[in-house]
Design a protein that fits this description.
The chain has about 450 residues and is of the alpha/beta class. It is built from 14 helices and twelve strands. The strands form two sheets. The protein has a six-stranded parallel beta sheet, sandwiched between helices. α4 crosses α5 and α12 packs across α13. It is elongated, with a radius of gyration of 31 Å. The two termini are about 50 Å apart.
Length: about 450
């Protein structure tokens, strides 16, 4: 509530006798028309007074009609925000009693509490979030920091849909969202400390969990409740909303394997992200179970440029893969274009799967086989879990449903071709940081 005006005077108890006096004042006010807040000055004077912004009759005492007749420019009155002092005056009680009534504290009778709240509603009073923050009562705001290049927001639709789901929950609870884009995790941790010092947020939504992630420790030291979206680690005030990346990878590889693909490459996102490492490990495990020694993962920055460049390099190999799994829809669409540049067809020469489904997957030709996740529901679930923590509930891990693989035109049985070279062989222009199959001599990029 408005804690700047809400002076918590210890022991200030409003006597019930004040109820009768205030009730009489209410009856008097109901019988007499009252001037609006824009007509009253700082001391509550009537229409003849001058308000805090100088709005009112001219200093010469001219009536408004006379001023208009003289050709004076009309200046619309600006409505002053109602304060606890206004509510106290209209209710006939002290400011301390108003504070207790509006903050739900003991010290006033239920009759007084109801009357104060009714008056507050009539004058349009709302609590000041700045005042609440200064008094430690909360900022009514949650924070979200994205440590990625700002240009990626215009490329990937996932985060925009995620934030849309978050906002649905925040709107219901009248909470605000403070969003910031920074360069790296170090800057992100500094932003959390800054927000905490200025009482800017009540909690945080943590995105892109990493291996050896310093952020949970920073948030725990600050006492800020948080939810790790896509994470698995929990702490006393840190919950996780986790996705089954292993199950999703299993469904994709099973589909491609059933079609007859044995040379499968995963074009992954940023190295070091927890979900990237889980997907790489999942592909490696599936390759081991199914006897696919050439299956491997290559990391990128999620952009269409790197998606296209990686596809060209794969197609230039002595024995190019027959199927590629891309970590988002943008890279998958770029892969279709890169194959067309080489005069290759999808899925005739190359099958393509997108880890994210979107409108883009249905705008390219052919339509892309994709994992149908629901980023909006993901965002809603994360915001609901953070609201739980803010209400005092213990932290936990919440799973989201396994995404459905939508099989479309971009996957088909591979063309027959000569036996490929020995397992693990790739062209000399293989990018640094690629993780290979289990039989390769090189170590994976993300252990």
């Amino acid at each position: 509530m408005d804690s700047v005006d809400a002076v918590h005077t210890e022991g200030a108890v409003e006597a019930d006798s004040a109820d009768e006096t205030a009730a009489a004042a209410d009856r008097t006010r109901e019988a007499e028309p009252e001037s609006s807040p824009s007509e009253r000055g700082p001391s509550g004077v009537g229409p003849s007074g001058v308000g805090p912004s100088g709005v009112g009759p001219s200093s010469t005492g001219e009536a408004p009609e006379a001023a208009r007749a003289a050709g004076a420019l009309e200046v619309p009155a600006q409505r002053r925000r109602p304060t606890i002092k206004d509510i106290a005056r209209r209710s006939g009680v002290s400011e301390s009693a108003v504070s207790f009534a509006l903050n739900g504290r003991p010290g006033v009778s239920e009759t007084t509490r109801a009357r104060v709240r009714r008056v507050a509603e009539q004058v349009g009073w709302r609590p000041s979030t700045a005042a609440r923050a200064l008094s430690g009562e909360g900022a009514a705001t949650i924070g979200l920091v994205l440590a990625r290049p700002a240009r990626m927001l215009g490329v990937e639709s996932f985060f925009l849909q995620l934030i849309s789901g978050v906002q649905q929950v925040l709107a219901q609870r009248r909470l605000g969202l403070l969003f910031q884009v920074v360069e790296d995790v170090t800057a992100e941790c500094a932003m959390y400390r800054h927000w905490w010092a200025e009482h800017r947020v009540d909690g945080v939504l943590l995105v892109d969990p990493r291996s050896a992630d310093p952020r949970p420790g920073v948030l725990e030291s600050l006492g800020l409740p948080a939810v790790a979206i896509g994470g698995t680690e929990t702490r006393p005030r840190l919950s996780a909303v986790s996705a089954d990346d292993a199950g999703a990878m299993t469904s994709v590889v099973s589909h491609l394997h059933a079609l007859g693909h044995r040379d499968i490459v995963h074009v992954a996102g940023l190295a070091g992200l927890a979900h990237t490492e889980r997907r790489i490990a999942s592909l490696r495990a599936e390759a081991g179970r199914r006897g696919l020694p050439r299956a491997r993962s290559l990391t990128t920055d999620y952009s269409d440029a790197e998606g296209a460049a990686m596809t060209r390099r794969l197609l230039d190999e002595d024995a190019p893969p027959t199927a590629v799994i891309y970590d988002n829809d943008v890279m998958a669409a770029a892969g279709v274009a890169a194959a067309a540049e080489r005069g290759l067809s999808v899925p005739g020469d190359l099958s393509i799967v997108s880890w994210e489904d979107s409108v883009l997957c249905r705008m390219v030709h052919p339509w892309l086989t994709a994992l149908a996740r629901d980023p909006v529901a993901f965002g809603r679930g994360a915001a609901q879990e953070l609201a739980r923590l803010l209400d005092g509930s213990p932290s936990r891990t919440v799973g989201v449903p396994l995404p459905e693989l939508l099989v479309r035109e971009s996957t088909a049985a591979p063309k027959s071709r000569p036996v490929p070279p020995r397992p693990g062989r790739v062209s000399s222009d293989r990018v640094a940081g690629a993780s290979s199959g289990p039989d390769s001599d090189s170590a994976p990029d993300s252990a």
